[in-house]
Amino acid sequence: MNSFIEQSNFFEGNNPEELAKTYGTPLYVYNEKILRARMDAVAKVITKYPYTANYSVKANTNIHILKLALEEGNNCDAMSAGEIQMLLKAGFPKERIFFVPNNVSEEEMQFAIDHGIMTSCDSLAQLELYGSLNKGGKVAVRINPGVGAGHHEKVITGGKKTKFGISEEFIPQIFEIAAKYNLTIAGINQHIGSLFMDPQPYLDAVTNILRIALQFKDLEFIDFGGGYGIPYHKLDDEAVFPMEDFKKRLEPILDDFVAKYGRAPLFKSEPGRFCVAEGSVILGRVHAVKHNNGKTFAGTDIGMNVLVRPSMYDSWHDIEVIREGKVVSRDSLMEQTVTGNICESGDLLAKDRPLPEMKRGDLACVLDTGAYGWSMCSTYNSRPRPAEVLICKDGSVKVIRRRETIDDLMRLF
Ligand SMILES: *Cc1c(COP(=O)(O)O)cnc(C)c1O
């Protein structure tokens, strides 16, 4: 595809150069239609049995985006007391929030209990703590599925080498702790990892947790985890996650379980990236182009403080070049390395990437930045964090987070 932003009409008729001039760069730009479509799609993964998609809000906690998830019928997963507070503020009732933390303090666990929020315990130690704080309560446990999947070692969260969940061999101890504190194990959950495009490892993990679930009698819900991928190489025509095929293959696995268990508990999944990644781009300005030892560097204001995924996980983000408000054609490409403005040699957005030749004053438009984008921003090099704008369904533009200022940073001293 020559241009995703043209094909999807991402800016809904707004001129990206005008957006950059009005709101400054770097700028996160979101598209409401795309966000809503993805949130709606995950809400319909299972239709035959009771089901909710719990949007994993660590991917993007902008309160205005949480409100979209609320309206699209998603429930939410929170990883911290802070995320719970964001969700309550966005209007989520406590019943629609699931707390899936790891290694939390007594205070943080107590916060969830005080707010009546279902909590999953990630270890026997945390289950002990929960029991001591909330005797007679209802709780969930996170199972380590023994297998993992994902795009990078750092995002594989299931399997024998990862820190997450309780391994199957400790299930007898789960029951012992539950008995000691009169706890009901109302749910089990898992998460194998992030960004898989092939459904098979996930389906295997579903089969596995359903086998384990047969040992738990009082389950109100079983949560299969998130991780559905999105095509980060869309300009090279990478295929989307095969959602329809996935749904078809999932159903008989659920049928089999429901027959054995005798009833259908609530099934859940926890997608983060799938809901929000493709609904955002970053607009950044090219400030300097240089040639060092035969290499061409395009220097932008999209540093690793603005988007850390390429530096942190070697992640690929497609980049489109915009000149005077128009996408530059990809008919003629030349190898360039796109960097930010941070004093680190690892501050690279794209390495030796064939792109239309970039010139000072162009805009670099980085695709698929809605997940783990702003939520992982930092103020490294004392650079305030960027603004976020939402292109609404009717094409109007709404600032959904103002740009941080140096005064905001100074206020903490
Ligand atoms: C991060 C996370 C998710 C979401 O992962 P995605 O790859 O964004 O879908 C779901 N569940 C848990 C427990 C997570 O930590």
Task: Describe the protein.
By secondary structure, the chain is an alpha/beta fold. It has helices at residues 4-7, 16-23, 32-42, 63-71, 81-90, 106-114, 124-133, 171-181, 200-213, 243-261, 273-276, 309-313, 406-410, and strands at residues 27-31, 51-56, 75-78, 97-99, 118-121, 138-144, 166-167, 184-189, 221-223, 266-269, 280-292, 295-300, 319-323, 326-327, 334-339, 348-355, 363-366, 387-391, 397-401. β5, α7 and β6 (138-144) form a beta-alpha-beta unit. α4 (63-71) crosses α5, α7 (124-133) packs parallel to α8 (171-181) and α9 packs parallel to α10 (243-261).
Share of residues in helices:
25-40%
Structural class: alpha/beta
* Largest sheet features: 10 strands, mixed
Instruction: State the total count of DSSP E strands.
Output: 19
- The shape, in one word, is globular
Supply Rg. 22 Å
Low-confidence spans: pLDDT under 50, at least 5 residues?
Answer: none
Give the overall pLDDT as a whole number.
96
Bound molecules: pyridoxal-5'-phosphate
Number of helices: 13
Portion in beta strands: 15-25%
For the termini, the CA-CA separation is 49 Å
Chain-wise SSE layout:
Layout (H helix, E strand, L loop, with lengths): L3 H4 L8 H8 L3 E5 H11 L8 E6 L6 H9 L3 E4 L2 H10 L6 E3 L6 H9 L3 E4 L2 H10 L4 E7 L21 E2 L3 H11 L2 E6 L10 H14 L7 E3 L19 H19 L4 E4 L3 H4 L3 E13 L2 E6 L8 H5 L5 E5 L2 E2 L6 E6 L8 E8 L7 E4 L20 E5 L5 E5 L4 H5 L3
Parallel strand pairs: 1-18, 2-3, 2-10, 3-4, 4-5, 5-6, 6-7, 6-8, 8-9, 9-10, 12-15
Antiparallel strand pairs: 1-11, 11-12, 11-17, 13-14, 13-17, 15-16, 18-19
Bound molecules: pyridoxal-5'-phosphate.
The site of pyridoxal-5'-phosphate has 18 residues, from helix 11.
